């Protein structure tokens, strides 16, 4: 029996998915839970599962295993064998189209019309009240075994937990009817299975609060208790009945282990019901409108988002505004000694000048030197002016920062300075981390990307009084794009005040862009900083000549960093320098890890006396915050950072700054058409900023690892990012913010590894989390070389992108994106189809794999492999799984990003694509001639060239047109809104495409020479 079970699982490796796919395809439903019921029994040694199959006829099969999931798979595999014997699966276990399943219906006495509705006598999925004596042996292929006494007791316990009220069963018989049940009062009676309630609860996490707010707003009542009433009964299983009296009498029933759980499920069902259009008979005559009076649903009909809190924006009434302003004034008067004890900063004497300029001009540029206090003090000055004048509720300021760590740290500093009474009025929002302030007298610190996102839901920034763009001199592409939007926004919201703050830079250029707005210069304060350049450093270290790499800098512009020199300098400062922290600016992560490793090896047993902290954008925010902590007495802090620590943040105990003079900068290579992350010299403005980190709180020292002559050759300012990077993403963002556009294009996200391997890694992690076993989680991370914070970050991105897809009207609700049984994920397990979509979507990122090459000397190397793109040859990075592949499914790969490093272009992520993927290519050329043979190629490159007979080419051309129509219809309408005939056509088309991509394809053996 064991061997037979293993053979079944070999033949059907994913039996549960296969069963769901067959029934879903046949019945046209997104899940088959009503047709497949798994009943579990805990035996003394093994688990038993009885699978009740409700379609195409009632059959029961059994499975056994050491775990519940194993037993379910055994039973499902036996059921798959039955389905195959009945002719519901092909010879290779392939699926048929829906039309063929309708033909097969007559064989089992199941007319096609009856497939779409549960039988009146059939219990719902969650009804498991079955007597053990009634369980009969399964059909052919089933695994049968008699129940012992102990198993019977376990069975009864399991069934008691699954028992539901009879009213829930009655609702199942009516679930496909558009006419709701009516109670004795003429109201509707809504009941559904527990799975529907759980799905509704995921869509509405706080349903009772939401329902109460809706009723209060709709009825203008101060309470909703009289219009929504809960009645809960039961002991072990609670059954809650929610009665709604608005907009008409309705009743919702749900169950749960606890009272709160049952009530929340019932409320979630009510929220789901109220979300969709109601039956016209429910609406009272006085509320009905003529069809001509109903305005069409347009882009601006949705509620505005509140940029401060993120909730729907509702303007404050005059009474509420006055009450908030008076409350803020009282809080300000008793704000405590923190504000009074705050140190005097250089910006404070210019307070009246700055506030008057902001009051009188829509745009003001503040050029404040390092250490003047503009970042922390100016938002507080604005809040103080409004609060003391009795209009504090009108002051809602958004302050952007270039990096997440600066937004969080500055918000915490300002909150501390304002004192405990006003701490709730300061907040921050960065990606995947948010602590918004209360509305009315609010200071919100966020990244530039967050504000760009807020502009999508509130294009005129209603409810915001000031926008402060800090560190505007950095000229990153998001900041420049934000300035473009804010300039146009002034016409929509003339009352909005814009403040641009810069430490160094061409401030007059910003003034000219905004029509000659005033520029206020504020001198900074810095403690004395003694500077040392490379020649001075080498003399201190006893080196009489430049190291090889730095000597190279004297004659050429190539940038290379000697990590040994950096390590020697840090150790020299530690041995002979003043006490205090050391901040070392390095270009990137590899250099940070290299210096960290060298320091740890050099310090050896004395490492406990040092606190070595790497700072990089890829490090979790919690770890980055460690740089602000004061080390214990006798411990020296050594911070190894990129330019992330260059502006906006202050590390109080830093005395020594080591400046490598280098940083990573993204540039666009016009020749190869790819983005290059290159190590380049910083500008003189960057050098000033880095030097200033040493003199913020005490006298300090700056060590520049380049000669004075190099300083003179440096550019005065950085080249703006918008002039040196690709503009495709910027164009997409611009289209999002164009008012005439209604469909929003979504940006693709970066993949750190090969695409499907990454998906499996994240899916495996989610599965491990369900076990709630710490050792299992740690083993999974260790075995797969994964990092838990990164996986949590990715999980947050998945949720965010699900919301994006939902907001673009591509799915009915965000949870559909991650729900395997959702209709939109019907083909998510078709790997070849997924890779085909990737290849078409990422085009022209296409790689052609070639076997053999001719050297410059004219010799042919048959075992050499070359990887060619539209722009030229590239190399596969060792991080991609296709680098070491000895056999490829096809000659084409797709990738997301190519990076140029040290003169070579590398691809870090790649996916093999089927040779039949080409129908989805945007630039595919399909000839129209009627000859016997035809050539298929790409119109903009020679990477793909195939020959075929004219009939095949014509079929491919028709398939391509059908795919185009399907995509266009799916973008124009929600999936659920498409007519059934169109949905069926799409299903058949996708099934055909999946079958085509799964078909046999000539593999490609990769033979590599030693030098490859």
TrEMBL record:
Q: Which SMART domains match?
A: DEXDc (SM00487), HELICc (SM00490)
Q: Where is the Helicase C-terminal domain?
A: 565-738
Q: Which GO terms describe its cellular component?
A: cytoplasm; nucleus
Which sequence ranges form a coiled-coil region, renumbered to this chain?
A: none
**Would you say which domain of life the source belongs to?**
Eukaryota
**What residue intervals traverse the membrane?**
none
Tell me the InterPro entries matching this sequence: DEAD/DEAH_box_helicase_dom, DNA/RNA_helicase_DEAH_CS, DSRM_2, Helicase_ATP-bd, Helicase_C-like, P-loop_NTPase
Q: Enumerate the spans annotated as Helicase ATP-binding domain.
A: 355-523
Q: Where in the cell is it found?
A: Cytoplasm
Q: Which UniProt keywords apply?
A: ATP-binding, Cytoplasm, Helicase, Hydrolase, Nucleotide-binding, RNA-binding
Biased segments, Acidic residues type: 150-162
Q: What is its EC number?
A: 3.6.4.13
Family, according to the entry, reads as follows:
Belongs to the DEAD box helicase family. DEAH subfamily.
Q: What is this protein called?
A: RNA helicase
């Amino acid at each position: 029996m064991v061997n037979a079970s293993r053979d079944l699982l070999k033949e059907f490796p994913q039996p549960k998915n296969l069963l769901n796919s067959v029934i879903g395809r046949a019945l046209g439903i997104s899940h088959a839970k009503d047709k497949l019921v798994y009943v579990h029994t805990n035996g003394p040694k093994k688990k038993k599962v009885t699978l009740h199959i409700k379609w195409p006829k009632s059959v029961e099969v059994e499975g056994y295993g050491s775990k519940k999931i194993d037993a379910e798979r055994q039973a499902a595999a036996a059921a798959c064998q039955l389905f195959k014997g009945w002719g519901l699966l092909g010879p290779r276990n392939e699926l048929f189209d829906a039309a063929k399943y309708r033909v097969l219906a007559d064989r089992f006495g199941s007319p096609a019309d009856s497939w779409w509705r549960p039988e009146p006598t059939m219990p719902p999925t969650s009804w498991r009240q079955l007597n053990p004596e009634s369980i009969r042996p399964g059909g052919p292929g089933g695994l049968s075994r008699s129940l012992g006494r102990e198993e019977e007791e376990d069975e009864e316990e399991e069934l008691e937990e699954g028992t539901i009220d009879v009213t829930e069963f009655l609702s199942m018989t009516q679930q496909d009817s558009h006419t709701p049940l009516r109670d004795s009062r003429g109201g509707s009676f809504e009941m559904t299975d527990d799975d529907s309630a759980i799905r509704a609860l995921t869509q509405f996490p706080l349903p009772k609060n939401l329902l109460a707010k809706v009723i209060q707003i709709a009825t203008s009542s101060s309470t909703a208790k009289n219009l929504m009433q809960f009645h809960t009964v039961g002991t072990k299983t609670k059954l809650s009945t929610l009665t709604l009296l608005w907009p008409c009498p309705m009743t919702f029933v749900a169950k749960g282990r606890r009272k709160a759980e049952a009530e929340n499920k019932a409320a979630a069902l009510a929220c789901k019901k109220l979300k969709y259009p109601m039956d016209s008979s429910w609406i009272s005559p006085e509320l009905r409108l003529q069809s001509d009076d109903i305005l069409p649903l347009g882009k601006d009909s949705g509620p505005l988002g509140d940029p401060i809190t993120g909730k729907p924006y509702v303007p404050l009434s005059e009474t509420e505004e006055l009450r908030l302003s008076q409350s803020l004034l009282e809080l300000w008067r008793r704000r405590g000694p923190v504000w009074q004890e705050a140190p005097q900063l250089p910006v404070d004497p210019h307070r009246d000048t700055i506030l008057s300029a902001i009051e009188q001009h829509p745009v003001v540029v503040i050029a404040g030197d390092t250490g003047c206090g503009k970042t922390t003090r100016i938002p507080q000055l604005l809040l103080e002016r409004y609060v003391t004048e009795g209009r504090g509720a009108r002051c809602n300021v958004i302050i952007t920062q270039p990096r997440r760590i600066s937004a969080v740290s500055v918000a915490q500093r300002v909150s501390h300075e304002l004192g405990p009474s006003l701490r709730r009025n300061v907040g921050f929002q960065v990606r995947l981390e948010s602590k918004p302030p209360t509305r009315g007298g609010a200071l919100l610190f966020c990244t530039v990307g967050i504000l760009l996102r807020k502009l999508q839901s509130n294009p005129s920034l209603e409810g915001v009084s000031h926008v402060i763009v800090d560190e505007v001199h950095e000229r990153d592409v998001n900041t420049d794009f934000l300035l473009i939007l804010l300039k146009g926004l002034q016409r929509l919201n003339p009352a909005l005040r814009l403040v641009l703050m810069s430490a160094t830079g061409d401030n007059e250029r910003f003034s000219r862009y905004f029509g000659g707005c005033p520029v206020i210069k504020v001198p900074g304060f810095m403690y004395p900083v003694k500077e040392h350049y490379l020649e001075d450093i080498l003399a201190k270290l006893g080196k009489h000549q430049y190291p090889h790499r730095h000597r190279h800098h004297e004659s050429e512009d190539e940038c290379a960093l000697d990590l040994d020199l950096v390590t020697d300098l840090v150790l020299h400062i530690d041995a002979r320098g003043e006490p205090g922290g050391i901040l070392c600016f390095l270009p990137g992560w590899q250099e940070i890890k290299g210096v960290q490793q060298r320091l740890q090896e050099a310090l050896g047993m004395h490492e406990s006396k040092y606190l070595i902290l790497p700072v990089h954008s890829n490090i979790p925010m919690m770890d980055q915050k460690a740089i602000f902590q004061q080390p214990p007495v006798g411990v020296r802090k050594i911070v190894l950072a990129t330019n992330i620590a260059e502006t906006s943040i202050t590390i109080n105990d830093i005395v020594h700054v080591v400046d490598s003079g280098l940083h990573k900068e993204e540039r666009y290579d016009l020749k190869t058409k790819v983005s290059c992350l290159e190590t380049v010299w910083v500008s003189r403005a960057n050098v000033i900023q880095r030097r200033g980190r040493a003199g913020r709180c005490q006298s300090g020292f700056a060590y520049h690892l380049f000669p004075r002559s190099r300083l003179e050759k440096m550019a005065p300012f950085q080249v703006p990012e918008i002039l040196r990077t690709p503009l495709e993403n910027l164009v997409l963002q611009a289209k999002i913010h164009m008012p005439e556009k209604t469909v929003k294009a979504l940006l693709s996200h970066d993949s750190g590894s090969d695409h499907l391997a990454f998906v499996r890694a994240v899916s495996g992690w989610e599965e491990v989390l369900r076990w709630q076993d710490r050792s299992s989680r740690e083993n999974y991370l260790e075995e797969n070389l994964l990092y838990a914070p990164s996986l949590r970050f990715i999980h947050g991105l998945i949720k965010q992108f699900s919301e994006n897809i939902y907001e673009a009207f591509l799915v009915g609700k965000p949870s559909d994106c991650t729900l395997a049984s959702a209709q939109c994920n019907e083909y998510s397990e078709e790997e070849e189809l997924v890779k085909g979509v990737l290849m078409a979507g990422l085009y022209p990122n296409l790689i052609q794999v070639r076997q053999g090459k001719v050297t410059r000397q004219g010799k042919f190397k048959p075992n050499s492999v070359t990887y060619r793109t539209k722009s030229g040859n590239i190399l596969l990075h060792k991080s991609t799984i296709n680098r070491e592949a000895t056999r490829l499914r096809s000659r084409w790969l797709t990738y997301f990003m190519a990076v140029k490093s040290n003169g070579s272009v590398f691809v870090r992520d790649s996916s093999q694509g089927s040779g039949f993927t080409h129908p989805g290519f945007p630039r595919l050329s399909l000839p129209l001639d009627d000859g016997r043979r035809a050539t298929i190629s790409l119109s903009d490159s020679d990477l793909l060239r195939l020959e075929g007979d004219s009939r095949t080419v014509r079929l491919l051309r028709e398939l391509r047109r059908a795919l185009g129509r399907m995509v266009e219809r799916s973008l124009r309408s929600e999936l659920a809104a498409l007519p059934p005939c169109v949905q069926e056509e799409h299903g058949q088309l996708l099934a055909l495409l999946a079958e085509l991509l799964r078909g046999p394809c000539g593999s490609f053996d990769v033979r590599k020479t030693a030098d490859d």
